[in-house]
Amino acid sequence: MSAQSLRTAAASAALVLLAGAASPMAFAAKPQPAVPDTRQEAASMFSAERQTEHRGEHDDLLSAGLGLDGLRAMAPPAFADAAHPTAAELRRRALWANWRGIADLAPGGGYGELYGSVARVPGREFSAFATLSGARQPHRVLVQVPDAFDAKKRCLVVSASSGSRGIYGSIAVAGAWGLPKGCAVAYTDKGAGTDYFDFDAGIGVRADGTTGPVAEGGLAFAPDAGEREAAKGVAFKHAHSRDNPEADWGRHVRQAAQFGLRALDRAFPQQAPFTFANTRVIAVGISNGGGAVLRAAELGDEGAAGQGWLDAVVAGEPNVYVEGARPLYDYTTEAALLMPCALLHKPLGAMPVAPASGDSAESFCTHAAGLGLLGDAAREAGTEVRAQAAYERMRASGWSDEALRAGALSVNFDLWRAVAATYASAYGRFSAAQPPGTRNPDQPWVRYAYSAGQIAPGAPISARAASESERAAWWSDASGIPPGAGVYLFGPEAAATEQRLAPLAGLRELWSGQRLDEQSGEQDAGRGAALAAAQQRVRKGIEATRASAPRKDLPIVVVHGLDDGLIPPAFSSAPYVAMAREAGAQVRYWQMRNVQHFDAFLGLPALSARYLPLLPYVYEALDRVEAHLDREQPLPADALIETAPRAQGQALKAADLAIPR
Asked: What global pTM score does this model have?
């Protein structure tokens, strides 16, 4: 399969990716001290509250009535009026997009057969905007309460979206496990999500997913008036809220759990109150959501510091930063500059590399060599020598061959640039960039802007205003970080490759604090001062995301694929587990060979024969945690799981997964 066809097919896969009658006194109390009921205090944190019902032949909680066949459809559920979709249509399409962006639903991939469920689950949804103290912008919270809620169990699963996804971003992780078991499931978009704002039209996203003008209020995300007056194009919450949401991921998760208890009180008033003392709370998430639930594990209940509100945590492939390890921004900016070139190192045997940015992998080698990143010998050498130098540098900084090979996916989809630009803006709390050529004193270094794009054969994509129908679908279709859903990432206009790639060096400079070009003179001195100020902001933002040790008696299971090329375990889960254990925490660690970051891409034959899905291990870890809490079964032992990738064209078998028993 060519790199181009791989990229096209994978893009399609990713973009196209609670009724019992028992008395509260009948429930077994948690084996922990009772904590104060903070429901009254929590109520003031929530606004724009909504309740909807999802039952009948064509609707439910897990798939909006689509079922497995509907989720497998290549085309998204249609809107009757493309420019004015209803809230129900947007919800159905958002569920379709988020299932396909997270899970491998392809026939033969095992979903719904070997593991996982999309069984019809009727029930109610409760949603709101939630506001943390000190935050400029709200985050979304949503609670799904199945009609078959197990009143004897009083179970609440809480989760955070992976990546920067919207509120349904963890449906395939938490919903698929918790709802069929009769648990309520609470979600948060953790201050990111798909509430894009169109500066050109002055329009954002309402609580129900429909769009409306900022003048009417009630939007999930609206930049301040000064930004709206100066900027053009599109802003999105993760990059442009000016809140550095990652610093508060743990608080977002806890607040979602608080809203979960509030929703249960409303769903079952005769059994209220539901509190952290009488309701089991299990947190689960993957990727950024995995990092968020580990950050939540640090926190006591508000108003009762040090007392537990969580009963267990399962974190898959977590993006989590601990002291002494490499934070995401460090290795992402390194990969953005060096990985396209390093993947050309022939002994590595990686997939074909064709960066979606339009510049060849060879041009990245030339650029890195010109910046002096590959050593003196590489400046005048050919691509082969430069590729080896880039490979050796990345290996020396902790990248494994397995992570590098899988990292080709992130190169081909331009993820390194997209992630680096987003997180630089978030960590520095920078305002949204103004159009190219406009000087923005608040954002001297993050030289990227976002806009709808005009595509013409043989010409670069150019920025333009978004249409009404494009804007209407952002909430349901987008992944939370452009490019995608018709929104593009634009750097400074430049004809030469060196100039087009230069902003990547600027993003790296925000981490290193060292200039990577060779300018000099008075202008250079001014730029150096701007770099120092911008770097201080970014570094301060990164430090605010550093994780601390979890509660010692809290059961935690971390699962991570050793072939993860986006969040390598050497930089995230491994140092986190070591730190937590040194602090006396109860952590178990599963490491799986031949498992990379993106289950959704495994529908592609070239990848299904090389990699196995992550989700079966997450579900199994949840089962083991539940057995530990219910029946005092031991937590799973640490495991290095030797998997066996299936032959191309063959269906996945349970033996391939080699799950420890």
From this structure: 0.92
